Amino acid sequence: MAVEFAHVADIVNISFPEIIDGNAYTIIVGEDNLELTDHTIEGTYDTELLEQHLVEFLTLKAG
Hints:
Shape: globular
Structural class: alpha+beta
Number of strands: 4
Strand order of the largest sheet: 1-2-3-4
Order of helices and strands: EEEEH
Distance between the termini: 19 Å
Low-confidence stretches: none
Mean pLDDT: 82
Largest sheet: 4 strands, antiparallel
C-alpha cells in the first residue's frame, strides 16, 4: 500500500492514495509532543489497517 506524506514546517500530512481521498492524518510537531488529527473518522475505513501501515512506514523512515 502506498503511503505519501508532505512536510511543511511543523505539519506532516499523511495520505493513502489507494484507499482514501485527501489526507488520512495530520501530525503537528511541537517542542516536546506530537498532535495527531485523524481525518478518517468521517468514512468507513479500516483504521486499524491504516494505522498499521502508518506505523510500519514511520518505523522504516526512522531507521
